[in-house]
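Good day; I would like, with your permission, to put a structural problem before you. What I wish to show you is a protein chain and, alongside it, a tokenised description of its three-dimensional fold. I would ask you to consider whether the tokens describe a fold that such a sequence might reasonably adopt. You will find the record immediately after this paragraph:
***
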Amino acid sequence: MRTVLFVGRLACTAVLAALEVRGQNGLAEASLEQLLDIQVTTVSKKEQKLARTAAAVFVLGAEEIRRSGVLTLPDLLRLVPGVQVAQIDANAWAISIRGFNSLISNKVLVLVDGRVVYNATFSGVYWDQVDVPVEDIERIEVIRGPGATVWGANAVNGVINVITRPAKATPGGLATVVVGSGPAAQGTLRYGGPAGTHGAFRTFAKYSRFADQKLADGHTGADGWSRMHGGFRADWELGRRDGLTVQGDWFANRGSQTRSTSYLRSLAGLVFVEDLSINGGNLLARWKHTSSGGAETSMQAYYDTYRRVDLGTRETSDTGDLDVQHHFVPFGAHDIVAGGGFRAVRSTVRPGGAVSLAQAERTDPLYSAFVQDEFRLAPQLWLTVGSKVEHNSYTGFEFEPSARLAWTPGSRHALWAAGSRAIRQPDRVENGVRMELATTPLGANTVLDVRVSGNPTFRSEELLDFEAGYRAQWTQNLSLDATAYASFYSRLATLQPQAPRFTGETSPVRIEQQMLYGNMASARNYGGEVSLNWTINGRWRMAASYALRRLNPSLPPGSSDLTYSDATPRNQIGLRSEVNLWRNLEWDQTLEWVQQLRNGRAPGYVRADSRLGWKFGEVTQLSIVGQNLMRSRCAEFGGSGWLINTMTARKVFGRISWTF
């Protein structure tokens, strides 16, 4: 009841504010594009109107990012319909699309300016290693559903593409300071200017410190952490038809977490605090050329490296990637994008920690090529077909085709349908891990040792996905985007218990229980997402979203899996309001309801965030932000692996920025 009253008061206050204010400037002057005219690049690796895009795509723009008041990329993704974001502790998140959420969700591909940050050693994303200054983000494009035809393996349930602003869009200086109970402190300094006659650059330095959160019993979770981050970007126009971008960054994280000696929740373990440290960086170069006939050719190369000490395990990774792409229109009805690439990942996991691998050091090459053709079947009907072909060192050749149909019966309506195949290729853990999960006394003279072993014959997980969607710009101020999907997974990863072995003839007797990776599970997933955007008047804009998921995993008779846990909420609702209270005064609110996780490890919760922002003149902005205002602490996900979760805390912080 208290939640309902709070929401009611929030809505009523926003309505009164929108009706009573009397300034001159309004949201209508933001010149936001209409829904069907929004340009996206992630679906086809080319600029394409949303009306002709046969995929479930959402674009989070720079203005929405600014008005959110959010400081981290995971919190920004809470604004995207259909994305499940759950904070596990102060420096760990579980983020997924359409289910299968975990500490390292392995079915969502994440990119920053075309650089893949998906981890090939453990399959997933280390979110504490992904940081982009929010002031530099131009937009975030999110595909819900497969994107493997152009992006390849691991783009199974979705693609998150963070696109930063060109250097010429950020001239001069910017300084920001944040203090409060969210981040204990954060500061950013950025400066940009001309680079030669036809170029521009920017460089930045950033420091963040996040405070400890509480365990469920009220004790400290010892999960605070700090981050130092610096980087640069430079863009040049090399004549009328060529452009060059060079960018890179470096970071160093230090922190700690509360953990258990037991990986399996069914076995009790000792609780302890362990430090973690990470440092790394990357360097990327991208060249684009436009021919006299309008064809576009691009080449991108990057190097990415990191060193991570986690769970007592020392992991290093070095990635080199080269991609070439060509976009051309050979004749009237066809629009073709084709390309190829090579990636090599050298990773080392040194023995002695909680995780060890059969090969301490290994280099995995990945060869790929793709082609996709969009051609017009009728004046308002387009068919897009294509496939990616990859060769990896675990399963050899993999094919990831798709067919997409888009129909625009009028200027205000668009319908689409798609069918795709995607795979999630094996990682080093599934192929060759050697890991002690738990050592548990079963009595005075008996000890149970649970061990995990990799499987060299582990195969790729497979998805066959079918989607359909409808977009409508009903009026100038009201738009709708709806999607329904049916997804069929096969060869999903399992950990199969093997026959126990008794070792030792003297006390204590040891029982060795081995767990072997396999591909025994399958799943069906049905659901949909819908989002509604309404510009009520020149001062007030609202957005609402709903996501429905029905994930049903299954195992064949006689098999079992002791690790799978459905951490997916079946229902999720979001509400966003942006109000201009006065000429230079903004009030923005976000409300999110997430149903209880199906595994029962986290209850359902309502999360309310609010921002009040002032602009003083042309150079100074001040905002006060409150996050998770409904309650002082709540559990969003529960523990994961050895990690014990802490309670997501209520946060209030102030942010001031100066431009010069």
Summary: Confidence is low (pLDDT under 50) at residues 1-32.
